[in-house]
Amino acid sequence: MVQKAKILLVDDRxxxxxxxxxxxSALDQTLVRASSGEEALKALLTDDxxxxxxxxxxxxxxxxxxxxxxxxxxxxxxxxxxxxTAINHGPHHTFRGYAAGAVDYxxxxxxxxxxxxxxxxxxxxxxxxxxxxxxAALLRLQLExxxxxxxxxAKEPAGLLAELSARLAAVEEQAEAxxxxxxxxxxxxxxxxxxxxxxxxxTGLRRALDAxxxxxxxxxxxxx
Length: 224
Known about the structure:
The protein is α/β, with parallel strands linked by helices. Helix content is about 55%, strand content about 10%. The chain is built from seven helices and five strands; from the N terminus they run βαβαβαβαβααα. It has a five-stranded parallel β-sheet, with helices on both faces. α5 (about 110-145) packs parallel to α7 (about 190-210). This is Response regulator. Keywords: Coiled coil, Phosphoprotein. Pfam families: Response_reg.
């Protein structure tokens, strides 16, 4: 069963959190509420999130300060942040949001379809990255274990490489389709850049796997 991605919703107003849940429920992912910046940072200590929807105006620690803390932590610095604000802001206010590390800055009231579409892109990128990490972990495990199958029986090197290659090919195909979709739809530059980073990681994994093929000059493969 595919594990659902977690989306962090941060807003001090319960009615706003309820509205976000209604909009994003169609994505069928796990929605986690936080009513303050402090509560959001606490949630980020233990859980991994695909994307954070962060209200700018909150009592105590506001959205900008919360984002600064998120970006300073190694564990959370790469999580995409979408700022939500009811303020009638100018270019300077928007720039401050991007400077704080946001991938997008949306004013309320926002189009529910647009918000859902933006969030779905980052959820899909997160899922692809999870698949890539799983394939890399599997490759390391099977190489270190001498190519043993799940039942503990040793597999022939050629069969092991073919199985890993097929698994990787499936992820590569999905990543290629996603990149094409992002390009066709002219989605946010941040999402396109994230997809490109994913493809580079896939390319590195493919090269490491190819180096293990009989007759190759790679010798040993290192997967980062």
